[in-house]
Each structure stands twice: as structure tokens, then as C-alpha cells.
Amino acid sequence: MNPLVILGAQESGVGAARLAKQRGLDVFVSDAGTIKPKYRDELLRLGIDFEENGHSAERVLALPAAS
Predict the structure, then answer these.
(1) What is the pLDDT of residue 67?
(2) N or C: which end of the chain has fewer CB within 10 A?
(3) Taking a C-beta distance cutoff of 8 angstroms, is the pair 43, 6 a contact?
């Protein structure tokens, strides 16, 4: 599965994550702040992995190099 990291879990970030998940991508969402409950609930409902209150560099940078 192709991985995708999305920075920011507000309306556009969650919308992008939803679309990417529908397209079969392995999505991870990272937000530097606290995710609003309605967006957190949507990520949970969709089974999209996420983190909040900071970006973990090892997770965000774990994407394979493009060739």
C-alpha cells in the first residue's frame, strides 16, 4: 500500500486524508496542535492513524524514497 503523510488535521487535512484512504493509500495524519473532536472522531471512524500535539519526525519522515 502506498503511504501518505498529511500535516494538519483541520477541514482540508482531514478531507485529503479521507480522499487518500478512499483511493487505497496508507494514510497518517500529524497535527502540531490538538485536533478538534469532530475531526478526531472522523479519523477514528475512518480508521486513519493520526497523532496530535506534535509531529514525530521518525513517523513523518519514514516514507520510502521516490525512485
Answers:
(1) 34
(2) C
(3) no
Neighbours of 60 (CB within 10 A): 14
The helix/strand/coil state of 10 is coil
- State how far the Cα of 52 lies from the Cα of 67, in Å rounded to an integer: 30
**pTM assigned to the model:** 0.86
Question: If you search the block for the grid coordinates 482531514, which residue do you land on?
Answer: 14
Instruction: Give the 3-state secondary structure of residue 46.
Output: helix
CATH number, position 49? 3.40.50.720
Asked whether residue 65 is domain-assigned, the answer is: no
For residue 17, being part of any structural domain is answered with: yes
pLDDT at 57: 83
The whole domain housing 50 covers 3-60
For the chain, give the mean pLDDT.
89
